[in-house]
Amino acid sequence: MKVKFWGVRGSIPTPGKDTVRYGGNTACIELDAEDGTIVIFESGTGIRMVGQKLAGMSPVEVHLFLSHTHWDHIHGFPFFIPAYIPKNVINIYGPPHFDKSLREIMAQQMVYSYFPVNADELQARINYFDLKEETVSIAGLKVRSKLVNHPVTCFAYRVTEGSKSVVYTGDNEPYYNFMASAAMDEAETAEIAMIVQEQNDRNVEFVRDCDLLIADAQYKHSEYPSKIGWGHSSNLQVVDMSIKANVKHLVMFHHEPTRTDAQIDEIVEETRKYCEETGHTGLKITAAAEGEEIVIV
User: Fold this and answer.
1) What's the whole-model pTM score?
2) Where are the domains of the chain?
3) Which of 234, 174, 173, 244 minimizes the C-alpha distance to 210?
4) Which fold is adopted by the domain 2-295?
5) Coil vs helix vs strand at 118
6) pLDDT along the chain (297 residues), means of 10
7) For residue 33, what is the enclosing H or E element?
8) Are 36 and 77 in contact (CB under 8 A)?
9) d(Cα 52, Cα 39) in Å, to the nearest integer?
10) Is the peptide bond before 225 cis (omega within 30 degrees of 0)?
């Protein structure tokens, strides 16, 4: 498998001189299987460049997996050129909302009030698949979905090809007791703590022994206490999960939009230093950068 990053930023695109090296496009990751199967995670603004690459390859079939349908994860799709080319096939997988299908959610951003092309006018064949926690088989790949903690229904995905695996967490933060209060008695607190621990243990098992983990690490550990409930993880939270799960390579992803290239460098160094100080030097740690390619062999 080969993984390429086309968009690595969270929340909103951030063009400018201070974000050139890591990139300012919102989330989009391409995964190419050995047999040529094309999987894309997210359709943030980075998907526009993927589309430019694929435009000359028609007819082409693409499997697009959305972790969730917040704006920064779908707003690049109207600019995805392969969707406008007849004979192309675009398969879109992701979570529905409680009152809307994935098809309805994606079509809402392509009404004439917001965009000059209606979703029904796309020339490619667009297939939608509302997911739950399940495993999807695509040629030689198995793509497993798992619910994670975010303010809207959101999936992490684990892609397996033979003995190799890549996990993309989507937007998420560790589970915690969001009902905690002074009125809660000791028994209730203990019961919820057990449930929280079980859910976080499931996250660890989901990424267990993967070759590559691409993880939401939007915040520094020192920032996280003021961001609890926002649905994003800290650098040290994802490192701790990686260590517990015996991950080989952690790529920190979904960079905070106010973060400069130099500040991301500092976070990488801080994270590596933490591993050294805790005696876990076997974990490779990098930050996702637009244009970077990682080959899993």
Assistant:
1) 0.95
2) 2-295
3) 244
4) Metallo-beta-lactamase; Chain A (3.60.15)
5) coil
6) 98 97 98 97 98 94 98 97 97 93 94 94 97 96 97 97 97 87 74 90 97 98 95 97 97 98 98 94 96 95
7) none
8) no
9) 16
10) no
